[in-house]
Structure formats: C-alpha cells, structure tokens
Amino acid sequence: MKKETLPKILKSSAILIGLIVLVVFFAIVTKGQSITLRNLKLILGQSIILMLVSTGVFFVMTLGCMDFSVGANLALSCYVMAKVSTVNIPLGIILTLVTGLIIGCWNGVIHAKLKLPSFLVTLSTMYILNGLVIQLTASEPVPVPFELFKLDEFAFKIPLLFVVLFIAYYLFRYTRFGSDCRMIGAGETAAIYSGIDVDKVKIQAFCIAGVLASLAGFMNGIRTGAASANAGSDMPFNVLIALVIGGLPSGGGAKSRFSAPVIGSILISVLSNGLVLINLAPMVQNLVKGIIFIVLIIIMAEKQMPKFLHKKTIGVLAEEKLSQ
After folding, report:
1. Alpha-carbon radius of gyration of the chain
2. Rounded (10°) CA dihedral 314, 319, 323, 324
3. Is the model's pLDDT at 94 over the cut of 70?
C-alpha cells in the first residue's frame, strides 16, 4: 500500500514541485534578484491577469475546445475601458465587460450552431479584433483616466481575484453547468444522448471566457495606464502553456482540475519573469516556452490516447443503445 501511495503523491505534487524547483533555480541564477519583494509583486501582478484569462479558457478547454481570441478580446476591452471611462468611469467598466460578453457569445454561437471547429472560429475572431484594435490605436495608445490608477493596488485586485476564482470553482464543482462541461469533454456524443444541451453549455462557456478576458483587459488597463495594440498579443500562447503545465488534459473531460489555471498561471509568470531577469531576448524566450510546450504535449500524448479511444467507445455504445 505504501509503495503505491508514494508514487501517487509524487505524481499529484509534480506541478507544485516543478514550481518550487523553478523558483529556486531562478533565485540561484539571478543571485536572489528574482525573490526580492519588488519582483515578487511584479510576478503576482502578471499572474493575476493571466489567471483571470486562464480561468475562462479553462471552461472552454474542459469541453475539448479552444479560444485563441482572448488576447485580442483583452486588447479591445482595454481600449473600450480607456475610451469610455474618460466620459464616465462606471459606464466604462460596464461596457468593458459587455464587450467581452459579446465576443464570447459570438464565438460560442458560431462554433455551436454552425458546427465549425472552435480553433478556426476563434482564430478568425482574433484576426478581426486585432485589426480593429490596430486601427483604433494607430495614432497612439489611449491613456486610462488617472482616477482608475487608484485601483492598481493588491488591496483591490487580490480580493477581486479570489471572488472570481470562488465563483468559477463553485460553477465547476457544484453546478450542473460544471458537470455538463466535464461530460461533454469526456464524450460529446454520449453527452447528447444523456440529454445535455451541448450547444447551450458551449455558448455559456465561451461567454465566461469572454467576460473574464475583458476583466483581465480592465486589470491590464489600470496596471499599464494605457490601451495599445500590443496588449494581450502573447496571451493565447501563455494561457495554453499555463493550462497544460497546470495539468489540464488537452482534451478536457472528467480529469480536468480547477487547480490547473491557478498553478499554471503562477508557474508561467515565474518562468516569463525569470527569462527576462537573465536577459534572454524575446525571441529566445518564445523559443524556450515553445520547447517546454512541445515536451509537455509529447509527455501527455500517451495519456490522452486511451482517453481518445474511450471517447470513441462511449460514442459507439451510445449509438448502439439508441438503435436498440
């Protein structure tokens, strides 16, 4: 029993151990620069934005789908917040969230109703939104009203993050919506035959991803002080890496764990910050992240193969049951 328990404990703690190893490695390489109070605050600020977006995409990936438009959503939402808030701050915040909701609903409806692959739909949305943001910010970045800078404090951001995570965790673990997401990810055909309104659940998941991306856009605006075309440019890639590193199966399903966006976001923020501190060029940083991502996909490929076969098996059995 003890021999079986130890490997299970090590396996379940692998991500946390990896985070500790990464922190210690960068602390040694940077001679303690990475663990100064100022730098830890910087990492926390970066991880809050990434965690919000990752939490939204977590629901989408649990379905077995993907949302590549979250970075462009963040940028456009940040622009709306900066522009409208100069006239009316509460209205600016509301319209920021409404912008994200509309984008998420668009993605969900096009994917669910027209039966188009989610990655194609969201890639198209990403290019449309990126082009729009570039046009809107072509002359110069749009500054955020000075009054909103007061919100760029951990006393505001941390409680807000905890509220969002609590609501998201409750939705995922204790509601019909969360269980439906896991079932659809485990096998969409079986979910349909179980009476789940798959299209409705998918639209709701994309809406959540859209709203949380827009909330991250608000956070990005009060943190950087302006809305620009570059905001969120690398967000889709960072979100994908964070969720995979956090342990989310690439196909979603019943094995999805809510800890993935939390631990994964912190880990990828520590990695990105450490690569900057050791003065690696941006292209080299992307190379390192890409290599890590490929290695993780290769490692997880064998784990996902039985699940893929399981999906097909469930679908065949469901069809046989219906025919009977």
Report:
1. 20
2. 0
3. yes
